Amino acid sequence: MPSLDIVDASIIDLVLSASVITQAVLIVLLLFSLVSWAIIFQKFWLFRKAAAENRKFLALYWKIENLIELRKAATRLKLSPAARVFLSGMERLDPTFSLKSEDDLRGMEEPERVTGLKILERTLKRSVDEQVGALESYLSFLATTGNVSPFIGLFGTVLGIITAFQGISRQGTASITAVAPGVSEALVATAAGLLTAIPAVVAFNYYVSRIRVLASEMETFSTEFLSLVEESGIQSKSARKAVSAKIGSGGTDSE
Q1: Rounded to a whole number, what is the largest CA-CA distance in the chain?
Q2: For the whole model, what pTM was predicted?
Q3: Is 235 helix (H, G, I), strand (E, B) or coil?
Q4: Are 29 and 152 in contact (CB under 8 A)?
Q5: Dihedral of alpha carbons 135, 137, 141, 143, sign
Q6: List of residues 6+ apart from 81 with CB closer than 8 A
Q7: Which is more confidently placed, 35 or 226?
């Protein structure tokens, strides 16, 4: 049985002795593979940190009742998608970061209570979409690699088969000596295409499932946050005046 070193050496020699076009195919596949693995490792670290910080933020959200204090904690969790969504909502409520307490938050000015809540809802939805888009960045390259690499390898396979037939034509016989170089090139190109595509497809599907989980957490949090803001009684001065006037007029009518 040949040793591993001999097999590795034979593959390297085969690649070096391959046709220029086949070598170009292998170089393209190598570049696709290197970039794919770089994205895979970077996304693995990102999703791991994002999930950990998301859990930490959501725990703080249920623990800390003061939204102003929660905002301070959220600013330290830079990789938590839910924290980013929360901060975008708080920025909509307090663009100048002038609120210092819950009383300030309840007394803040909004054009109209209902309108303000609708704007906040759109802000949260837009922020969720932005966070999902950020998480999906570069995943399209993995999808492209998974779809294209087998065909690039197949192109190299076809070239190898052509080389094998040319060997038969030159030697006038279908002996193993005539077809071996071309068939070897074809198999190497096929293997290279699969080795490039399989990790990219597996990683793409895995990260898409992780994004769905994070997106679900962000959407659930957005609903909870919007309900909390609505229940906190935030309304504009004009709305409070309108309510007061309505109460006053109601008292007059009753008299």
Answers
A1: 116
A2: 0.72
A3: coil
A4: yes
A5: positive
A6: 50, 54, 128, 131, 132, 134, 135, 214, 217, 218
A7: 35
